[in-house]
Amino acid sequence: MMSVTPWNQISADKSPFVELFLHAGIPTSAIIMNLVVLSSVMSSMNSGVFSTSRMLFGLSKGGQAPQSLGRLSRRSVPANGLTFSCLFIMAGAALQYFVPNTVEAFTLASSLCVILFISIWGLIMVCYIRYRKLRPELHAKSNFKMPGGIFMSYVIIGFLIFALAILSLEADTYQALMISPLWLVILGITYQLLYKPRMKKRLLQNNLSE
Q1: What span, in angstroms and rounded, lies between the C-alpha atoms of 48 and 67?
Q2: Which of 14, 153, 176, 181 qualifies as a FRET site for 35, CA 20 to 30 Å off?
Q3: pTM flag (> 0.70)
């Protein structure tokens, strides 16, 4: 695309793929690209709904999510988790009504996803470092060791912080960066109200049974 269209002439409200095909003399390029984009979005959404509903089911069985999400339908489908996932997808679609600018809404949603992925991988690296320090004997027995070990973990954490710093340079991505801690607050509250009391109750039951 960059070899055909100069970077400073690419419009944010037009698809660069469509513009490329128009330059190639394919007038139906907009329809073709819309079909490609819609099919890929539907595929991604289907994969997301499937994995999220099963993950909620697993968390429920592990006592880390409401028990209602662990119930199966007559066809052995985690219907409550499926419904929960679909409701969040609909909430994401409603973002378009609160942010009328399509480009701004897309940037906000995609930036939030990037920030959450960065947070998840950051937590994984922190947990790995704690694991190496607290249980080195288990790590020594592992057949799948992380290349670079603790040093590489700090390198990855540094890169993730660098990525967050890059997101703070633009106004639209900075807005998503400011909103993202709200999700961590929600997780912290649900942990204190739902998961922690259950763990205490389970530990108490185990101690009484012993």
Answers
A1: 21
A2: 176
A3: no
Other C-beta atoms lying within 10 Å of the C-beta of residue 152: 13
* Residue whose entry in the numeric block shows the structure tokens 């037009």: 14
pLDDT tens sequence across 175-197: 888 888 888 888 788 778 777 77
3-state per-residue secondary structure call for the chain: CCCCCCHHHCCCCCCHHHHHHHHCCCCCHHHHHHHHHHHHHHHHHHHHHHHHHHHHHHHHHCCCCCHHHHCCCCCCCCHHHHHHHHHHHHHHHHHHHHCCCHHHHHHHHHHHHHHHHHHHHHHHHHHHHHHHHHCHHHHHHCCCCCCCHHHHHHHHHHHHHHHHHHHCCCHHHHHHHHHCHHHHHHHHHHHHHHHHHHHHHHHHHHHHHC
Give CA separation, 93 vs 86, 99, 100, 106, in Å. Answer: 11, 11, 12, 10
Rounded to 5 degrees, what angle do the CA atoms 106, 111, 113 make? Answer: 100
Structure tokens at 125: 């690296």
Q: Which range among 30-39, 97-106, 110-119 shows the weakest confidence by mean pLDDT?
A: 97-106
Residue 7 φ then ψ, to 5°: -60, -30
* Measured CA distances, 121 to 62, 125, 128 (Å): 22, 6, 10
